[in-house]
Write a structure and sequence with these properties.
The complex is a heterodimer of chains A (about 350) and B (about 675).
Chain A: E1 2-3, H1 13-33, H2 38-46, H3 51-56, H4 64-92, H5 119-132, E2 137-139, E3 144-146, H6 147-150, E4 169-171, E5 186-188, H7 194-200, E6 207-216, E7 227-237, H8 242-257, E8 263-270, E9 273-282, E10 298-307, H9 309-314, E11 323-330, H10 331-339, H11 354-357
Parallel strand pairs in A: 2-6
Antiparallel strand pairs in A: 3-5, 4-5, 6-7, 7-11, 8-9, 9-10, 10-11
Helix pairs in contact in A: 1-4, 2-4, 5-10
Chain B: E1 2-6, H1 7-13, E2 14-16, H2 20-30, E3 33-40, E4 43-49, H3 60-70, E5 78-80, E6 99-101, E7 109-116, H4 125-133, H5 141-153, E8 158-161, E9 169-174, E10 180-182, E11 188-190, E12 196-199, E13 205-208, E14 212-213, E15 226-232, H6 235-244, H7 250-255, H8 261-278, E16 282-283, E17 288-290, E18 300-303, H9 304-311, H10 317-326, E19 330-333, E20 337-341, H11 352-363, H12 384-398, E21 402-403, E22 409-410, H13 412-417, E23 438-439, H14 444-454, E24 462-471, E25 479-489, H15 493-506, E26 522-529, E27 534-539, H16 541-546, E28 553-559, H17 560-566, E29 582-589, H18 596-604, E30 610-619, E31 622-629, H19 638-656, E32 659-660
Parallel strand pairs in B: 6-9, 21-24
Antiparallel strand pairs in B: 1-4, 2-5, 3-4, 7-15, 7-16, 7-17, 8-15, 9-12, 10-11, 12-13, 13-14, 18-20, 19-20, 22-23, 24-25, 25-28, 26-27, 27-28, 29-31, 29-32, 30-31
Helix pairs in contact in B: 1-3, 4-5, 5-8, 9-11, 10-11
The chains are: A alpha+beta (about 350), B alpha+beta (about 675).
Chain lengths: ~350, ~675
């Protein structure tokens, strides 16, 4: 690209310096891109007829007291252009490159900007990718939700003892005038399972869902935080079996934790699945032999089960034609189990101390 | 709920060669999870988690019953040994009387008997040792017997001092709101009403049924006449009372799960025997058993195809029959269906999938083959916002920013500092800390706190967070809006303006040209509102000092929802120009307070030969623009450009009163 040169009147000192510096920039860029012979380039950029020549000629018009300063800039610009020209020479030469000067190759490099993604973001990205490959699509459902989706539609009517297992935060609903029953009571969802019936209500089958969202429980100690993340897998189709759930878990465990890890189901009870299972993963530290970090070689990973017929009905799905599984994990816990971070206090994850965040 | 089961006690009911290790492993795989085993006083004590639907397994006997079905599946002999006490000879007497009124809805079964010449004394060592192993402190022979029965069979029992029940009258009823009662542990309760209580002949309440006995009817060292008392109660009401009074006991934990009324009599009979044996009590009344609606077995049916579909493999008739029969169910199996009458203690088996669970777990989840979903996957698309969020986060990380996750809840104090009307914020009614009470309607307070927290550690903070804000909607759930906030320390408007421009360009959205200032949280002269997309600028000094921050902070807030909504990602190809471009720098002298963005936007529209305009320099009142000229059709001559330049100069004079600076 060619710079247009205009005839100009006498020039101010600042303006001249700016123009010189611009010229230096232009020249070094242009020389770098050019394939012309060096002599030609030197003529173009430093010759009498060049922009440099023209600017140099202003020297005459500069007041005496500024001459020294302008002179220094002129020389600097000229030197920079010469240097670029000579580096060009080296590159264009057919000679093998030889350096006379000693050069310190151990000098620290210029680092690109170093940002840090939070470990929860890193975990969510990895999890999402793993499940995408087997056709499970990520969704997100409300964090502040009605009691209906968080409990009732999950086969846990009001006052059901199973609700005790969730240390639920309630939202003051007095500000919210009751319009319909579903919104009469609001909670901070204590699990991602509030997305189950919401997803079914979209009305499309089959369903292969991964729901990842913030959840909240009234707890705060070294292994619990009041806000955390869960991810929930749900598969509904004809003839979905416990075998599918096992395959799904095994796929995730091997992808996320490594091909040597094993998983198993143990009987459990949840109101919204029947049968229900706890999912264990073999301990990565002792490889299943049993150590102080695990229970006899196993670590608890997730809760899961075959979706209860009542929950399917709440979602408008006929349990005689369709079946499905659901499984939920904690993102933080899963990440900590994999990474070997040896984090001994989960609250650090949400402590936002930059000295912590920059470690990941 | 976790229970402790000593190995020797278990083996009293379970004849087996299984080692403790085998018991632990196989129970966990097919039944209740043995979370750990402790070795106490030369013996293994299993710590077992029992799920809330299985009160039948919350006892040593219950575990023995489960183990007797599970262990043989692993080739280990195991047989259940039950003491049948039903035919225990009982010496009836009519010396003492109880006048009982009860209510079969609140109290489906009532059993009681009075003993006299009872000697209250320490228990024998076999009993104290057993109780100790399950974590119960021995008190005296009579109390220990009730605890023993509860841990052995899962049926709570209670003992009253007969002489403290006025006129031998016991009237079980629903409480009235505001009645008071002091329980054995000395706690005074004001009852919420509808609680199950027993009133005696003097009108005082002597029992908070299913939870704890009254202090006024408790036995002491001097007690000689006692009532042994075993019941079942309405589980829903027990739970309500226990929750309302925040009074949870082992007994209430069992009763609220719904106990087997058929279990009452055998345990009652064993209790009678133990009191006779360990407290030399003599039966001094008739045996009372009020049980107006005895248990009737119901039938649950499941189709064979459903069983096979759930398990993913075919289960043989013989195996189905064997598993269910061993579990105590009366079972008939044909080619199409399985009909089951569960025993009285397995009322959790109520629908078809409950039967499938029993079959699957006993035959072993570990025997089921892993399969990946093999049907046609659904044709749906991920919500684009999720991908965009990830992309934005990755960009910011690459640009050198560090991501924070602050809590979604903020304090009342912060709400006030930011002048947010708490009527339009979702409030938690049972917060765990005053720091976490309101669902935040903006990310700014949390981010400023994160900045403040980290200021001592770094001068050049560059933080961001991408989270929901909870916007108030009348009569509705909040609108959860995906929002990005970026903070840098110092007065660095240009830095975040650049980030904003880069993000807008990423979404293909042209940068808003309006010049309105941001909200009051920002310095009015140093901030910019970005339409519905957000705002940026330096935070107001007064607000910062209220938060205890003594350095300038620059913030960019963007609504990810809005960005995604307006994203234009079509990139249309334009042919690469054949003719070289030319450029020049034109400096204009502008009057004070002239915004530069409108000038640049306007410059681009002057002539089609102007293909690009950038700000080359800004110095005092001089704005130097770098202008690129290019034509699709020809090599531009000095003359061509000169014409355009004249237009520019005229235009700038007319629109912005700017004059070309000549050098």
């Amino acid at each position: 690209m060619k710079k247009i040169i205009r005839k100009e009147e006498p020039i101010a000192k600042e303006q001249l310096i700016r123009l010189l510096l611009t010229l230096q920039e232009d020249a070094t860029t242009a020389i770098g891109k050019s394939a012309e012979p060096i002599d030609q380039l030197r003529l173009t950029w430093l010759g009498k007829e060049s922009e440099f020549g023209r600017l140099a000629s202003y020297m005459k018009t500069i007041p005496q007291e500024d001459k020294q300063q302008i002179g220094a800039v002129l020389n600097g610009v000229k030197r920079a252009i010469e240097q670029t020209l000579s580096s060009q020479l080296t590159v264009n030469s057919s000679q093998k490159t030889q350096h006379e000067d000693w050069f310190d190759t151990t000098i620290p490099g210029d680092l690109p900007p170093q940002g840090h993604l939070h470990i929860v973001t890193q975990a969510i990205e990895e999890i999402t990718t793993i499940f995408n490959k087997i056709g499970f699509t990520r969704v997100r459902h409300p964090e502040v939700d009605s009691d209906y989706y968080a409990f009732e539609a999950l086969n846990m009517p009001l006052n059901h003892p199973a609700r005790d297992e969730w240390e639920t935060f309630f939202i003051d609903s007095q500000k919210i005038q009751v319009k319909n029953n579903i919104l009469s009571k609001l909670v901070l969802t204590p699990h991602t399972s509030n997305g189950q019936v919401r997803e079914m209500e979209k009305g499309k089958l089959p369903i292969r869902m991964i729901n990842i969202a913030k959840c909240y429980r009234r707890q705060s100690d070294i292994s619990h935080v009041p806000m955390f993340h869960q991810f929930e897998g749900m598969y509904i189709d004809k003839n979905v079996s416990i075998g599918h759930l096992k395959g799904f878990i095994d796929y995730f465990v091997k992808q996320f934790f490594g091909p040597d890890r094993k998983s198993r189901l143990r009987p459990f009870h949840f109101q919204f699945t029947e049968p229900s299972f706890e999912v264990d993963i073999s301990c990565g530290i002792c490889n299943g032999r049993g150590c102080r970090f695990c229970k006899e070689g196993w670590l608890e990973l997730a809760g899961s089960g075959m979706i209860h017929p009542n929950v399917l009905k709440y979602g408008g799905i006929d349990p005689n034609n369709y079946s499905g599984f659901a499984i939920g994990w904690g993102v933080e816990r899963t990440y900590m189990m994999k990474s070997g971070t040896q984090l001994d206090d989960i609250r650090l994850i949400y402590g936002n101390d930059i000295r912590f965040l920059k470690q990941f | 709920m976790n229970i402790l089961v000593p190995d020797s006690w278990l083996r009293e009911y379970l004849k087996t060669d299984a080692t403790p290790k085998q018991i632990k492993e196989y129970l966990s795989l097919c039944g209740p999870s043995v979370e750990r085993s402790n070795f106490i006083k030369d013996e293994t004590v299993y710590d077992i988690e029992i799920t809330s639907n299985r009160p039948d397994a919350m006892s040593v006997m219950g575990i023995a019953r489960e183990a007797s079905v599970i262990l043989p599946r692993f080739g280990i002999k195991a047989e259940l040994q039950i003491n049948q006490l039903t035919n225990l000879p009982i010496n009836k007497s009519n010396k003492l009387k109880l006048h009982i009124t009860t209510d079969s809805k609140l109290n489906p079964r009532w059993t009681s008997v009075i003993f006299d010449s009872v000697k209250i004394k320490p228990s024998p060592s076999w009993l104290t040792k057993r109780l100790e192993l399950v974590g119960v402190r021995s008190l005296n022979n009579v109390i220990d017997i009730t605890n023993y029965l509860m841990h052995a069979y899962g049926q709570p029992a209670h003992i009253f001092d007969y002489d403290k029940i006025t006129n031998g009258i016991m009237k079980l009823r629903a409480s009235k709101k505001g009645e008071t009662l002091t329980t054995l542990d000395g706690k005074i309760h004001t009852l919420p009403g509808e609680d199950i209580v027993i009133e005696d002949g003097s009108g005082k309440l002597v029992d908070l049924c299913g939870i704890m006995g009254g202090e006024n009817s408790a036995i002491t060292d001097k007690t000689t006449r006692i009532i042994l008392f075993l019941q079942t109660y309405d589980p829903v009401q027990i739970r309500k009372t226990s929750m309302a009074l925040a009074h949870h006991t082992e007994a209430s934990g069992l009763f609220e799960k719904g106990l087997d009324p058929e279990l009452v009599m055998p345990v009652f009979l064993e209790g009678i025997q133990l009191i006779q044996k360990l407290a030399s009590g003599n039966i001094a009344s008739s045996i009372i058993d009020i049980y107006p609606h005895p248990f009737i077995a119901s039938t649950v049916v499941v189709s064979r195809t459903k069983i096979d579909s759930y398990i993913g493999t075919h289960l043989e008739t013989k195996e189905i029959k064997e598993i269910l029969t061993n579990l105590g169910c009366t079972t008939t199996v044909d080619n199409t269906k399985v009909a089951v009458q569960p025993p009285s203690y397995r009322q959790d088996i109520a629908i078809d999938v409950d039967i499938i669970e029993e079959l699957a777990r006993i035959s072993g989840y570990h025997t089921i083959k892993d399969k990946l979903p093999d049907s046609e996957p659904p044709a749906i698309f991920e919500d684009p916002i999720l991908g965009w969020e990830q992309k934005l986060k990755n960009k910011l990380c690459d640009w050198g920013y560090t991501e924070t996750y602050t809590y979604s809840m903020i304090s009342k104090e912060l709400l006030d500092t930011f002048n947010i009307n708490n009527q339009e914020v979702y409030e938690i009614t049972n917060p765990i800390s005053t720091d976490w009470v309101y669902m935040r309607p903006t990310l700014l307070p949390s981010m400023l706190l994160a900045v403040k927290q980290n200021m001592p550690y770094e001068n050049d903070l560059k933080l961001f967070e991408l989270s929901m804000i909870y916007a108030y909607r009348e009569n509705n759930l909040p609108q959860e809006q995906s929002t990005l906030i970026i903070a840098v320390s110092g007065s660095r408007y240009g830095k975040l303006k650049g980030i904003a421009e880069a993000i807008f360009s990423l979404f293909g959205i042209s940068f808003p040209t309006i010049t309105d200032p941001a909200t009051d949280y920002y310095q009015q002269g140093r901030s910019l509102r970005l339409g519905n997309f957000g705002q940026l600028g330096e935070i107001d000094g007064a607000l910062l000092s209220k938060l205890g921050i003594n350095k300038p902070i620059t913030i960019l807030e963007l609504s990810v929802d809005q960005l995604v909504k307006h994203a234009r990602l079509k990139k249309q190809y334009t042919p690469i120009p054949k003719n070289p471009a030319s450029y020049e720098d034109l400096a204009f002298v502008v009057s004070d307070k002239t915004y530069v963005a409108p000038m640049m936007a306007s410059l681009k529209t002057i002539d089609p030969l102007i293909t690009d305009v950038s700000l080359f320099d800004s110095f005092n009142t001089i704005r130097t623009f770098h202008i690129t000229y290019q034509s699709d059709t020809k090599n531009l001559t000095a003359e061509d450009i000169s014409k355009v330049r004249e237009k520019i100069i005229k235009h700038m004079k007319k629109e912005f009163n700017a004059t070309l600076k000549t050098v």
